[in-house]
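My current task is to audit a protein record that another person submitted. Alongside the sequence sits a line of tokens, each denoting a local backbone shape. Please read both lines and tell me whether the tokens look consistent with the sequence. Do not assume that whoever made the record got everything right. Thanks in advance; the entry in question is below.
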Amino acid sequence: MQPPNAPPTKSPYRKVAKDDLILRDVLATDRTVLANERTLLSYVRTALGLLAGGASLIHFFDVGWLQVAGWVMVPFAPLVLVAGLWSFQRVRKNLKHLR
């Protein structure tokens, strides 16, 4: 995973011309696009789970270490969401010329 300010890497699919694809390649591209969307939804689900879990720990428990765990989980939720969106956009950009 590259940092956001790193120079863009070349797409691993840059050597493949769209006209050279056969049906198997087109279907593989479609599976990759769907897997990328499924992965994004997993990141969103994880971020929502962290947010809900952290808020629940903060709200319902008076034990100090559980509240600390909740306060640690809440800020990680947007970080996970941003990481998922960044990953989704990177793969989507690499596959754009094949679709």
